[in-house]
Specification:
Strand content: 15-25%
CATH topology of the largest domain: Alpha-Beta Plaits
Shape: elongated
Number of strands: 12
CATH class of the largest domain: Alpha Beta
Helix content: 40-55%
CATH architecture of the largest domain: 2-Layer Sandwich
């Protein structure tokens, strides 16, 4: 970043605040070590090309750009948008976010045109406003601003991830509700039994949507430390079977289901049933249409364990890693919103959730304290 010393000193002398954009390459650590250096060089070329193309549109001619150590992140000083220190409050955070997202999109497009594995590298963007820097140590102030912009980039990346997951989960029940409601409206001459069946789908999908909204509220309450569980003694076998019945309209008739074992525990029945609905729904969606799903319940040493196994393709390694990140989707979509919320509600009970894969399918294991 030494190349930014001169423009920073000029800004310091003029007492001007300057917007700063931050771009970071993500996923580099997942690339094989032998090809990592070559991939970074390819990414650097792609970023440089994107920044050159952005000059005159997203970036202005006076703006200055520099790469961080190893070219894993980049900063752009938007000198063309600098303002007097007294007018710093006039810099719009929303406008900076838009510029950052446009710049990140340009880099992503360039990376998609690069060779593998550079195409698998992601880009996150952050921003801040750099106050007039010290005329003696301008790079110290710059490093502090870069750290702040990096935090913004991670927060924005997580927000986008959650928004994408929520949008994906909401779309399916909404499309079903709209489709069947329109059929009821536009085809009044259909047989009564068919209309009753359509109305039942609307009610079922609306209930599914309601459950999703409720679990999102729970997720927010848990994050804020305000989630209160209504714990009562209950049999886990009954709760699992109730969750399976709730999926009656969404599972193929050929899928077999069985529960082996039982245990009693102090749990919030409604929220734990939502956990099992999420897990069983996930198993149904990824099982063969004539496959089987098994729930095994055991109790020992003050803990009970519920294992749900299916005969699908199993979780890939990325999905297993993603389970530790809120709402992170995997390549095959198996670690999305439902699984993240299930983990959250299990942990609220003082338990744990783990996923495993084998050649026979996927296994999700929940452990809960009996009391």
């Amino acid at each position: 970043m030494d190349s930014l010393s001169a423009p920073l000193l000029a800004l310091a002398k003029a007492q001007r605040a300057v917007p700063l954009l931050y771009l970071e390459l993500t996923g580099i650590e997942r690339i094989d070590a032998r090809s990592r250096e070559r991939t970074l060089a390819e990414c650097k070329r792609a970023v440089a090309a994107a920044l050159r193309e952005a000059a005159g549109s997203v970036l202005r001619r006076r703006d200055a750009v520099a790469a961080g150590p190893g070219a894993r992140w980049f900063v752009a000083l938007l000198i063309g948008r600098s303002v007097a220190a007294s007018a710093r409050a006039s810099v719009s955070d929303a406008a900076l976010g838009l510029v950052a997202s446009r710049l990140a999109a340009a880099v992503r497009m360039r990376l998609q045109g690069a060779v593998q594995p550079a195409r698998d590298v992601g880009v996150i963007a952050g921003w801040t406003v750099l106050d007039p820097v010290s005329g003696i140590h301008p790079l110290d102030d710059l490093r502090q601003a870069v750290r702040g912009a990096a935090v913004v980039a991670r927060v924005e990346a997580q927000r986008a991830l959650v928004l994408a997951a929520v949008t994906h989960e909401l779309r399916t029940p909404l499309m079903s509700i709209i489709g069947y409601a329109e059929r009821l409206r536009d085809e009044p001459g259909r047989a009564a039994t068919a209309r009753t069946r359509d109305a039942a789908v609307v009610v079922e999908e609306a209930a599914r949507l309601h459950r999703l909204v409720e679990t999102l509220i729970d997720a927010g309450a848990w994050s804020a430390g305000r989630l209160v569980l209504d714990r009562r003694a209950g049999r886990l076998g009954q709760i699992v079977r109730s969750a399976w019945r709730a999926l009656a309209g969404r599972r193929p008739p050929g899928i077999r289901f069985g529960v082996r074992g039982d245990a009693r525990a102090l749990v919030d029945r409604e929220r734990l049933e939502q956990v099992f609905i999420n897990l069983l729904d996930n198993a149904v969606r990824h099982s063969p249409r004539t496959g089987s799903i098994r729930a095994t319940i055991e109790s020992a040493g003050g803990q009970c364990a519920v294992t749900i196994a299916d005969e699908g393709a199993g979780f890939d390694a990325r999905a297993v890693r993603a389970l530790g990140t809120e709402f992170a989707p995997s390549a095959n979509g198996r670690a999305g919103l439902g699984l993240s919320i299930a983990r959250l509600l299990v942990e609220a009970h003082g338990g744990s959730l783990r996923v495993r894969s084998s050649r026979l399918g996927a296994r999700v294991e929940i452990k809960l304290p009996v009391r």
